[in-house]
């Protein structure tokens, strides 16, 4: 007889017994009695303790009273003053400077509020604080030598009763705050004591459970000894029967495997022969019929795409010719007609060039979404509109229409203008500078131009920027996108795919040009790096190489017209 093994008490069984016991104790009112893990409902959770009230900034049109801000102290006062007047949180340097001066007594709260409200940023926000201007004037007058001292002395004597009253109120406020702190601490201590008692009760209950488990374990040991004897006898009987069954099973298994192997070999041989025959016939049939047709299909697809582009250009040219008055009626000279026809052909060439190298319209619209933040910021007032210079195929105008932004374009290309008209877009066929001169001053929220300024003479570009500054309303934005010559491949190769390009415009030059024409808050945004062309090697040399050849291929220059 083999030695009996006595299994240890199962962990799951122990957990079940503990849970049962806890439930019984919960019925008696001991330990946690709620499913969410809370203890006695009479013990409230500790509340959040605050020494200063919460601050809720008012809307732009509402005015503050001085008391709304002076009731706060120290860091909370500095933070709420910035949030109320400048509509933002102070930076770390602003925090440190204001708090140091305030704590040292060199300035007081009135000085802080006056500095923020009458700063350029505070004037731009225009927040109203009743009573601040007079109090700030008294503070400034009080700094005048001799006269200021006398004035401060008089004011101090006049305010002495109020100061005494304020001191008494402050003493009462401190007593109330100290009492609230004491109550808060006492409440926490009471709750801590209650939790400690519950923990002690739970530990005592656990010890009782362990004692019961130990007694049950001894009982289980005796039962397991008897059970092991019975199991050993049954095991011997099963071993004998198992040996007989195993002998018969091996014989039947040998016969079955032999028969199965014979059938498998015969089946596989027949099936594989049929498969090879059918596969060979199908391969020959597919090779004979599909290969020549597939080649023709590929050629036809390429030709169809080319013809589709040509058809678009021809359709636009026909539309333009239909709108042109015949020579006999108009009385134009033959040379003028030849020049007009040449211009239409160049328009057709440029439209084809855009289709070939500009990219798919859907991709261009996705890239333009980057600029919507600037447009929404500039068009926050009623009747705001956008003017797009050189609108091309109209992707930007379509995106603005999708965003419910009023916009119109200007372009001299007849074919692209006709295409925009088919899309229901508002585009004027006219020279950009000539059109800008007809626009009313301070009437446009945003002027944009994508891949247009690199086509212009420098003097023309300067006049264009001056007219743009004139037509923009205060707070309006100008936004241009152009090829980035910092990318070597762009500056030396891709830029010259368009023969109407004059010369690349480095971002530093455009930044200086906008600055000298009076624009403010000028930003340069590098865009569209060639990620798929980057070299995978690590290190400074590879990073430099990738930056020069596969870095941003375009950049955007953004400038704002100052508010009035």
Describe the structure.
It is a single chain. With 564 residues, this protein is of the alpha/beta class. Among the domains are: 64-190, no CATH class; 359-560, Vaccinia Virus protein VP39 (Rossmann fold), CATH 3.40.50.150. The chain has helices at residues 11-27, 66-70, 74-85, 92-104, 109-117, 120-125, 132-141, 147-322, 327-330, 334-357, 361-368, 372-378, 395-402, 414-422, 432-437, 458-471, 488-492, 507-516, 540-550; strands at 64-65, 129-130, 385-389, 406-411, 427-429, 444-450, 472-483, 520-529, 552-560. The strands form 2 sheets. The chain has a 7-stranded mixed sheet, sandwiched between helices. Strands 1-2 form a two-stranded parallel sheet. Strand 4 (406-411), helix 14 and strand 5 (427-429) form a beta-alpha-beta unit. The longest helix is centred in the middle third of the chain and has 176 residues, at 147-322.
Which structural traits does this protein have?
Rossmann fold; 564 residues; alpha/beta; flat; 19 helices; seven-stranded mixed sheet; disordered N terminus; two-stranded parallel sheet
Question: Helix proportion of residues, in percent?
Answer: 55-70%
- Uncertain regions: pLDDT < 50 for 5+ in a row? 1-9, 29-45, 323-344
* Strand arrangement across the biggest beta sheet: 5-4-3-6-7-9-8
Main sheet record: 7 strands, mixed
**What percentage of the residues does DSSP assign to strands (E)?**
5-15%
Give the total of beta strands.
9
From the N-terminal CA to the C-terminal CA, the straight-line distance is: 105 Å
Radius of gyration: 43 Å
How confident is the prediction overall: mean pLDDT? 78
CATH superfamily of the domain at 359-560: Vaccinia Virus protein VP39
Q: Which structural class matches the secondary elements? A: alpha/beta
CATH architecture of the domain at 359-560: 3-Layer(aba) Sandwich
What is the number of helices?
19
Instruction: Give the overall shape, derived from the CA principal axes.
Output: flat
Quick one: CATH class of the domain at 359-560? Alpha Beta
Could you tell me the CATH topology label of the domain at 359-560: Rossmann fold
**How do the helices and strands follow one another from N- to C-terminus?**
HEHHHHHEHHHHHHEHEHEHEHEHHEHE
């Amino acid at each position: 007889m083999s030695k009996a093994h006595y299994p240890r008490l199962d962990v799951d069984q122990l957990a079940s017994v503990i849970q049962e016991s806890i439930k019984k104790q919960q019925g008696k009112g001991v330990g946690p009695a709620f499913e969410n893990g809370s203890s006695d409902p009479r013990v409230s959770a500790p509340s959040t303790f605050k020494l200063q009230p919460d601050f809720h900034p008012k809307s732009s049109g509402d005015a503050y009273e001085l008391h709304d801000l002076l009731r706060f102290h120290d860091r909370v006062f500095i933070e709420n003053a910035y949030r109320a007047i400048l509509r933002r949180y102070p930076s770390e340097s602003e925090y440190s400077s204001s708090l140091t001066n305030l704590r040292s007594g060199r300035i007081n709260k009135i000085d802080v509020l006056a500095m923020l409200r009458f700063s350029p940023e505070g004037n731009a926000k225009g927040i109203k604080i009743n009573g601040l201007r007079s109090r700030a004037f008294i503070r400034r007058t009080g700094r005048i030598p001799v006269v200021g001292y006398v004035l401060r002395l008089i004011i101090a004597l006049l305010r002495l009763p109020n100061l005494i009253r304020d001191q008494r109120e402050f003493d009462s406020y401190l007593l109330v705050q100290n009492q609230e702190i004491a109550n808060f601490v006492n409440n926490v201590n009471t709750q801590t004591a209650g939790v400690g008692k519950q923990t002690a009760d739970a530990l005592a209950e656990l010890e009782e459970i362990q004692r019961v488990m130990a007694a049950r374990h001894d009982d289980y040991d005796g039962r397991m000894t008897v059970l092991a004897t019975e199991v050993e006898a049954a095991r011997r009987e099963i071993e004998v029967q198992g040996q007989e069954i195993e002998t018969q099973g091996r014989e039947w298994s040998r016969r079955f495997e032999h028969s199965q192997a014979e059938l498998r070999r015969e089946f596989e041989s027949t099936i594989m022969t049929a498969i090879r025959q059918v596969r060979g016939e199908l391969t020959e049939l597919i090779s004979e019929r599909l290969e020549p047709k597939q080649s023709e299909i590929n050629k036809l697809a390429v030709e169809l795409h080319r013809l589709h582009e040509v058809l678009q250009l021809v359709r636009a040219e026909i539309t333009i010719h239909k709108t042109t008055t015949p020579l006999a009626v108009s009385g134009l000279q033959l040379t003028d007609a030849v020049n007009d026809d040449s211009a239409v052909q160049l328009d057709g060439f440029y439209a084809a060039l855009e289709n070939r190298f500009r990219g798919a319209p859907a991709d261009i619209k996705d890239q333009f979404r980057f600029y919507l933040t600037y447009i929404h910021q500039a068009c926050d007032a009623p009747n705001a509109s956008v003017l797009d210079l050189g609108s091309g195929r109209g992707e930007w105008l379509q995106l603005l229409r999708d965003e419910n932004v009023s916009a119109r374009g200007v372009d001299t290309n007849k074919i692209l203008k006709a295409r925009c008209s088919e899309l229901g877009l508002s585009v004027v066929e006219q020279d950009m500078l000539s059109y800008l001169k007809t626009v009313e001053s301070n009437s446009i929220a945003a002027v944009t131009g994508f891949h247009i300024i690199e086509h212009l003479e420098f003097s023309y570009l300067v006049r264009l920027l001056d007219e743009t500054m004139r037509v923009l309303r205060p707070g309006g934005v100008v936004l241009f996108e152009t090829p980035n010559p910092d990318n070597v491949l762009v500056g030396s190769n891709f830029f010259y795919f368009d023969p109407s390009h004059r010369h690349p415009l480095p971002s530093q030059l455009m930044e200086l040009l906008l600055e000298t024409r009076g624009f403010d808050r000028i930003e340069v945004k590098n865009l569209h790096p060639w990620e798929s062309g980057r070299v995978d090697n690590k290190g400074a040399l590879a990073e430099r190489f990738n930056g020069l050849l596969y870095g941003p291929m375009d950049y955007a220059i953004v400038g704002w017209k100052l508010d009035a």
